[in-house]
TrEMBL record:
SUPFAM superfamilies hit by this protein: DNA methylase specificity domain
InterPro entries tied to this protein: Restrct_endonuc_typeI_TRD, Restrct_endonuc_typeI_TRD_sf, Type-I_RE_S_subunit
GO biological processes: DNA restriction-modification system
Domain of life: Bacteria
All residue ranges annotated as the Type I restriction modification DNA specificity domain in the record: 65-208
Family: Belongs to the type-I restriction system S methylase family.
Source species of the chain: Brachyspira hampsonii 30446
Keyword Transit peptide: no
Name recorded for this polypeptide: Type I restriction-modification system subunit S
A GO term for molecular function: DNA binding
Keyword annotations of the record: DNA-binding, Restriction system
Length: 212
């Protein structure tokens, strides 16, 4: 049976709910960064229309080769938040065909890769979580926020993770890991986190970070 589309009002309501929960990125204007007369400018676009040009020299702490460009991470990669099926105990399984349930405790403190998980969930949990693939990057988004890991496994992530995917058009995997591990990245994440006690990184804040 062919499914019917949601009424527009209900579709927008569901979309607003997902944005509020930081499950999807809020639609916004795109931008491109260019150099002119020794300074860098960001051109903000709405479709093909130019809204404004802004000098961003104060955001750029070092020079890059002329053949490189500065970009907002969200313009060259997809950034998404994890989700947790609840109650989680209902979805956990010991079956060998279960889906890897990737938790922060599966990552070594000073490690680079996530190679295995201690727990798995049933396949029905995928629709209530975020499925990620080997080669994707995970970022811790609370407490010790901004710590990057490279996935060597497929699985699902909870809402304590952000995933960075579809980045290969712009970045080599090793170089992106170096960038995300840098003091420059951490400074931007610290500047962009919200919350006075438990600090959190959101999709938009990571997407707005600028990198060569």
């Amino acid at each position: 049976m062919k499914s019917l589309p949601l009424p527009k009002g209900l579709e927008e309501k569901n979309k607003d709910k997902l944005i509020k929960e930081d499950r999807i990125k809020k639609e916004k204007n795109t931008s491109e960064i260019y150099k002119k007369d020794g300074s860098y400018y960001e051109r903000v676009l709405e479709g093909s229309n130019v809204i404004k040009d802004v000098c961003i020299d104060n955001e750029l702490p070092f020079n890059i080769p002329d053949s490189w460009v500065w970009v907002r991470l969200g313009n060259v990669a997809e950034i998404l938040r994890g989700g947790s099926p609840r109650p989680i105990n209902k979805y956990l399984t010991t079956s060998n065909d279960g889906i890897n349930w990737i938790k922060i405790s599966d990552a070594e403190k000073n490690g680079k890769y996530i190679n295995s998980t201690r727990e798995r969930i049933i396949k029905e949990g995928i629709n209530r979580s975020r499925f990620v693939k080997s080669g994707d990057f995970l970022l811790t988004n609370s407490m010790s926020f901004g710590r990057p890991y490279i996935l060597n496994i497929d699985g699902c992530i909870h809402d304590g993770w952000l995933v960075i995917t579809k980045y290969k058009i712009a970045y080599n995997r090793e170089f992106l890991f170096y960038l995300l591990s840098s003091n420059f990245a951490y400074y931007q994440f610290c500047k962009n986190v919200s919350g006075s006690v438990v600090q959190n990184l959101s999709i938009d804040k990571v997407a707005n970070s600028i990198f060569p």
